[in-house]
Amino acid sequence: MQSNEAFHQVSRSIKPGHRFFKGTSQSTKWYVKKTLSSSVVILLISLTVAYGHSTFPHFPDTVVVAKQHNSVTIPCNVKTKRPVTWRFTTDGEDEEVADNHDGFNLTVSDVDVPMLGEYSCWNGVEMLSSAYLRFEAVDEEYGSLHCRAKSYSCNFSCKWNHSDFTAVRLGLGHSCTDGEKSCTWINSTGRHSDGGLQFEITHSLDPCKEEKNKLEVTAEAINHYSYLKITKRFYLREIVQPDPPKRLSCQEMPGQNLKVNITPASSWSSPHSYFSLEHEIEYVYRDNGKTGHSTSADIPKGITKLRARSRDSLQEVKLWSKWSPWISTSTCISTIMS
C-alpha cells in the first residue's frame, strides 16, 4: 500500500530517541491542547478482541483514527469532578503531555508518525481510560479479504491476505459494520497454506429459501501505524465454490466410450438431487498426449488419465472447484468394480 510506504518513509526520518513535546522546531512541533468541546469529527472504533500479535503489549480497547496532518480529538471516557492529566506512551516510553489545562478531551493537531501511540487520561495515579491513535488506512486494491462457501451449509470461510497488519478480526452483520458493542467479533482459526489468516463464519440462512438480503462481512485490522476497515456485501450463492469431487469411477460402454460417474465432495450440500452440480472432465489421449475436455459423462476410451471439477449448476455466478487429482484410466475402471 502506498499510504503505508509513506508512513515508513516518515518514520525512518525520525532520529532515535527524538521527542516531540518540547524544544523542537516549528516544522515538527506538536500542537496538543485540551478542549471541553470538539468540532472535529472522529472515527472511534471499539477493538476489544483480535487475533494475532502486535507491537503494543495488549490489543487496545479503543482506537482513534486520523488522516495524516489532520487534527483529531481523543476523549477521556470516564468522567470525574477532579481535573485530569494526559500521558503519551509509545515504544515503551511514557511522558506527560505538556499541557495542564483542565478538560476531558485531548486535541492532537497536524497528526504525524511521532504522535502515533497510546494516550491515557489520569486522575492522580489512577488511569481513567486510554486510546491508541492510528492513521486511517485505505485498502487500495480491495483485495485483502476473500470469502468462500464450500456449500449451502450454515458456515463459510474468509481469508485475509494483507500481511502489513498484525491484528485482524471479522464480524458479520450491520452491528459490526456500524461498530456497535453488540457485534460478535470472530478471531482467526489459523493460517492458510499460503500464509493468509483463515476465518470461519457462521450464518443463519435457510438453504432452501431464496436469499433476499446480502451478507455483510466487516474486517478490522491494525498495526503500529494504521487502522484499516473493510466491508464486503454479497449473497451466499455468489461465493459458493464446491470442493473437488470425492471420487471418479469409469464404466466401459459398448463402442469407443467410457461413462464417468462423479461423486461430489463430502462437504457438498444434500440431497444432491436438489443441490445439483455440473462437472467438467479433463483427460489425456494415449496416442498423442493431448488433452481433451468434456461436460458430458461420456469420454473416449483411448486415454491414459483423467480428472474432474464441479460447480453449482443453477446459479448465475458459477465458481469451479479445484481439479480432483489425476487418476489413471485403469484405476478409474477398477473403482466402479470395488
Please characterize this protein's 3D structure.
With 338 residues, the chain is mainly β. It has 3 domains: 2-136, Immunoglobulin-like (Sandwich); 145-238, Immunoglobulin-like; 247-337, Immunoglobulins (Immunoglobulin-like), CATH 2.60.40.10. Helix content is 7%, strand content 39%. The chain is built from 3 helices and 23 strands. It has helices spanning 2-12, 174-177, 329-337, and strands spanning 31-34, 43-46, 62-66, 72-75, 85-90, 93-96, 105-109, 117-123, 126-136, 145-148, 155-160, 167-172, 190-191, 197-202, 215-222, 226-234, 247-252, 257-263, 277-285, 291-294, 298-300, 303-312, 327-328. Strands 2, 3, 5, 6, 8, 9, 12, 15 and 16 form a 9-stranded mixed beta sheet that branches. A 4-stranded antiparallel beta sheet has the order 10-11-14-13, with no helix packed on it. Strand 15 and strand 16 (226-234) form a beta hairpin. The longest helix is centred in the first third of the chain and has 11 residues, at 2-12. It is elongated. The model is unreliable at 1-58 (pLDDT under 50).
How many helices? The count is 3
- The end-to-end distance, rounded to whole angstroms, is 55 Å
CATH hierarchy, class of the largest domain: Mainly Beta
- What is the percentage of strand-forming residues? 35-45%
CATH topology of the largest domain: Immunoglobulin-like
Low-pLDDT runs of 5+ residues are 1-58
Any idea what the CATH superfamily of the largest domain is called? Answer: Immunoglobulins
* Overall body shape: elongated
Structural class per helix/strand content?
mainly beta
Number of domains: 3
Number of strands: 23
Question: What's the CATH architecture name of the largest domain?
Answer: Sandwich
Main β sheet profile:
9 strands, mixed
Helical amount: under 10%
Mean pLDDT: 79
Q: Radius of gyration from the CA trace?
A: 28 Å
Q: In sequence order, what are the helices and strands, one letter per element?
A: HEEEEEEEEEEEEHEEEEEEEEEEEH
